[in-house]
């Protein structure tokens, strides 16, 4: 298993390296090119992506579970089917309250992830 290459057309999830993360369960880098990146993240209750910001626009789609988001000081609880937009340079954080998975999409791609 390995991370997919930039611009790789077909990325099969079960063939992609799963990385353990310091503050949450795991991350899988999925398809990505220069301008867009798709990432799957898995969380357990209490796991988090701590308060941070970056130059990338980000959309998070909740596949399953429940998460408390803080985006620019606004707090909301989101569940399966919900999505969240984070503009570039807006501070945000997420804490998992029920086990789950999210898909993060970044534009441009996160070079620091590969």
Features:
114 residues, mainly beta, 8 strands
What is this entry, summarized?
By secondary structure, the chain is mostly beta strands. The chain has strands at residues 19-20, 26-32, 37-43, 48-52, 57-71, 74-79, 83-86, 92-107.
Question: How is the topology of this model organized?
Answer:
Blueprint: E1 19-20, E2 26-32, E3 37-43, E4 48-52, E5 57-71, E6 74-79, E7 83-86, E8 92-107
Antiparallel strand pairs: 1-2, 2-3, 3-8, 4-8, 5-6, 5-7, 5-8
Task: Provide structural commentary.
The structure is a single chain. The protein is an all-beta fold. It has no helices and 8 strands. The protein has strands at residues 19-20, 26-32, 37-43, 48-52, 57-71, 74-79, 83-86, 92-107. Strands 1, 2, 3, 4, 5, 6, 7 and 8 form an 8-stranded antiparallel beta sheet that branches. A hairpin with a 2-residue loop joins β5 (57-71) and β6. It is globular.
């Amino acid at each position: 298993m390995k991370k997919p290459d930039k611009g790789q057309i077909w990325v099969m999830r079960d063939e992609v390296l799963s990385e353990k993360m310091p503050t949450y369960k795991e991350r899988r880098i999925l398809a990505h090119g220069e301008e867009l990146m798709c990432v799957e993240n898995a969380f357990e209750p209490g796991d988090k992506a701590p308060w941070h910001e970056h130059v990338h626009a980000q959309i998070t789609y909740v596949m399953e579970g429940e998460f408390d988001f803080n985006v620019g000081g606004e707090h909301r609880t989101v569940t399966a089917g919900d999505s969240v937009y984070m503009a570039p340079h807006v501070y945000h954080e997420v804490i998992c309250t029920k086990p789950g998975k999210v898909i993060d999409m970044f534009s441009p791609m996160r070079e620091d992830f590969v």
